[in-house]
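ok so for the tutorial part 2 we go from a plain amino acid sequence to predicted structure tokens. step 1 is just haveing the sequence, like this:
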Amino acid sequence: MTTEKACHECHTITTETLCPKCKKATLSDDFSGVVTIIDPEGSEIAKVMEITQKGRYALRVR
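step 2 — the prediction. this is what the tokens look like for a chain of 62 residues:
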């Protein structure tokens, strides 16, 4: 079974060992809340979270 992890820097959720968006290895399997951004330009949540790309993001990463 593949474990999802969230990046401490950009909150992207991934199953890889390196974040595909910011290319850092600061991943944690301790995260909560998930938001899927489909339209970053039109999303108020994306603006608040400073997200500029489509994808799945954790709301909180520990």
